[in-house]
Amino acid sequence: MHFARLPDTNVGTTTTLRTAARRRDGLSDTDRLKLYYYMRLTRACDDAILRLYKQGKIVGGAYTGRGNEATAVGSAFALDAHDYLLPMHRDLGAHLVKGQTLRNIFLQQLGRKDSLTRGRDGTGHYADPPLRIYGNVSHLAAMIPVAVGVALAASLRKENAVVMTYIGDGGSNVGEFHEGVNMAAVMNLPFILIIENNQYAYSTPVERQFAAEKLSDRAAGYGIPGVTIDGTDVELVHDTCRTAVRRARKGEGPTVIETLTMRLHGHSASDDASYVPAEILSEWSEKDPVGQFARRLQQEGVLNDAKEEEMERGITRAIEEAVDVALANPFPPPEEASEGVYAP
Amino acid sequence: MAVMTYIEAIARGMWEEMERDPTVFMIGEDIGAYGGAFKATKGFQKRFGSARVIDSPLSEAAIIGAATGAALVGMRPIAEMQFADFVTCGFNQLVTNAAKIHYRWHLPVPLVVRLPTGGYIHGGPYHSASTEAWFFHVPGLKIAAPSNPYDAKGMMKSAVRDNNPVLFYEFKYLYRRVKGEVPEEDYTVPLGKGEIRRSGDDLAVITYGSTVHLALEAAEDLARDGVQTRVVDLRTLAPLDEELILETVRATGKVLVLHEANTTGGVGGEIAALIAERAFRDLDAPVRRLGALDVPVPFAPSLEEAVLPDKERIVATLRELNAY
Question: Please, which of A166, A284, B62, B295 could form a disulfide with A145 given CB 3.0 to 4.6 Å?
Answer without folding.
Answer: B62
